[in-house]
Amino acid sequence: MDQLVLGDLRFQVRWSTRRRTLGLTVERDGTLTLAAPPHCPTERLIKFAKSKTFWVYTQIAKRDLLRRPHDEKSYVTGAGFSYLGRTYRLLLVDHDEGEPLRLRGGRLELHRGRAREGAALLRRWYVRLGQVWLRARVHRLAGQVGVDAPPVQVQELGYRWGSCGRNGRLYLNWQVMALPPALVEYVVAHELVHLREPHHTPKFWRLLGRVMPDYVQRRDRLAELGGDL
Ligand SMILES: [Zn+2]
After folding, report:
1. Which of 68, 102, 103, 212 is deepest in the core (most CB within 10 A)?
2. pTM here?
3. Of 10, 57, 55, which is closest to residue 34 (Cα–Cα)?
């Protein structure tokens, strides 16, 4: 078994004499397994893995965040949570100084005494970071769409990723912050275009395509994850 590292993704390569094509699976524990025929050149492995990174990020996001977010058993050391398409591992700490949940040294530190509130703390963390991260994106994309940047509100939205609504506010589901940036930007751009065109008319998609030429791929990836716009 060999390893292939691409950015923050680590693939385990499993050589199989029965294979002619390459295959990729995300295991239950998040391990990425690349199955390859023997003597497959490294460049081919890299090219294949690169073509799959977007899919991998969405799979990780789906597994880590969209599964049972309220299950308190999930809030144990080593549990993975996706933020902007990257997985951060939880580390329960015994002290109780500072924020009960914070990102430190690449780990999500959670005070052990507050682990039972893990779901609520995590959600608050996503909302707080999301609000800041999104503001800059909303401003840039609003400029491209040709609308004034609306105030952003990150909150629980059930099965919807976002909505652009009443009183010109842009509402985004806090769970979008688990997605890779390209998908979050799709959700934002989609909602901003609704400020100009409320319905999914041909004009709507034309406007969106002007701002985001590859929106179809992004929309399809998002559709795989479920949720509506
Ligand atoms: Zn829509």
Report:
1. 212
2. 0.68
3. 10
